[in-house]
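Recap from last week: sequence in, structure out.
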Amino acid sequence: MPLLRIKRLAVLICVTSRIWAQAPSEAKKLVTLEKIEIHGSRFPEGALLHLSGLAVGEQVNDLIVTTACHKITSTGLVKSVDYAYDVYPDKPGVALILTLVDEKVTLPAKITPATDEERIWRALQAAEPLLTRELPRTEKALGFYSAHIERVLKSLGRDNEYVAPSVTGDANGAPTGIIFAIRSYKQTSAPRGQ
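Predicted structure tokens:
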């Protein structure tokens, strides 16, 4: 059975291909996802699919797939996504192949104060398997982790706390790690007479 592969290149934010401009009706046409494959990433496939919002059986077009790719790259953990469709002329639907390039340089991460660290890591990894104890020092990755740590703090009733990420370095200025410091918002006293 002949196979036709339609490839779309998506770098950083999943830029749609020239086909969109050349054949807008084809790019907007909905097709059913019969299969989704993910290659090239260290992250669990299920966690990436959950983050993307894509699922077998749903209908997609280039805009939907591009948006899903953007959700993956917006974490700062994945540098780029390349996607292609495998189309079989005698079968309905398509197979979507996502090829990811992870950010390669990662640093070990710590949460301070240390008394909170293990409890927060367990809660983070239970809620979001993409959150490992090593991450790239991209601004997006630092924000992605910080937002999730703050969600964990709120779930623990710690609404007056926030996360301040910082990159540590050695004596030569080379980065050696990332610290997510939990800090408290300053309390302001109520004006007198209230």
